[in-house]
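Recap from last week: sequence in, structure out.
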Amino acid sequence: TIKNSEIYSALLGIEWNQAGGILENATEVRVLASIDDGSNEFLSGYEVSTDGDYNVYDLTKVVQKSYLTFVDCEGGVEVSAFDKTSGETEIIIPETYQGKSVVSIGKSVFQNCSGITSISIPNSVTSIGSYAFYGCSGLTSISLPSSVSNIEENAFERCSKISSVNFSEGITTLNYYSFKDCTSLTSITIPRSLTNISSTAFYGCKFTSIMVTDGNTKYTSKDAAGNQLNLLIDSSTNRIVKGINANTVTIPSSIKSIGEYAFFECNLLRTVTIPSSVKTIGYSAFNRCGVSSLVISNGVTTIDGYAFANCTYLDSVIIPSSVTSIALGAFGGCTITKVTIESSKIYKAATSKTALGGLLNFAYSIKVLKTVDDGSNTFLNDNYTKSESGDYYVYTR
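Predicted structure tokens:
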């Protein structure tokens, strides 16, 4: 209760260093109406009522700002629009509006609002709509309350300055491209509750650290021995969902597939060894990486489209006998000059320079294991000079 005008003027915040910390744990402030001239900007941000000679400020209820518009939705109201001409840079979303809970941030509400520098999301919001903060390049961090369970597609795409995202326990779903091209986001911690992550949720992010909280029933970042791998792994399918941008990445022998875009644009990645446990290398898994040394172990059967596309440092590749399929563009944009083929199916599929996903585009030396080369490949026979070297036939041009 405040009866002194000087103390009223000194109330600038709830922090410990404001007015001696008198409001640090307060939920209500009563100010004598005769000294409350409405000049206190801090208090004006909260709902006020009258009680006799006092104005009573409820510090649990933020006043609705005029720059936000709301519409009714299931369970309460949704933030539906933002006045981009307001000049507001620090957005505070209230917990209630006209007595109803604010449960959602709607589609595209803050899209391309590059001037926004911070956003406060109350513990009533359960869902963040698609494109809600798309292109908010001024945001540097996001803290999501435990009430938020779902982040829709492209919600934070191109928030290029976000370097920190704090997921509270309660979040369950990240839809596709939800944090696409958040290029300053280099580390992420996945809480126990987050069990549904789209393979493209972090498309274009270049992580140096990936951690999954122990107890998550869907994902892990550790191997069977409990060693930290800095990989986001779907433990139900043993699939790598997202990898880090590092010189060398260790892929454990428990992994069965490398998901689409898992290492997309990891420009620092130089050395990759795919263990024999892996059966499928997914779409664009290593697209636009800096890979210069690649080992594909015998056991891999499928190399999906654009898996190693645009790996311009890659000069040689050995295709083991287990590989049965190389999809369109798998090695497109590469300048591989030396290719070794140990698979009979891949030997037979080598029907042109553009076949095998562009693997042979720049090849001047193609080695084929003698046991799979039956001499029937007319493309190799007609366009290259054939010689022998140990267990291989060598086709050169």
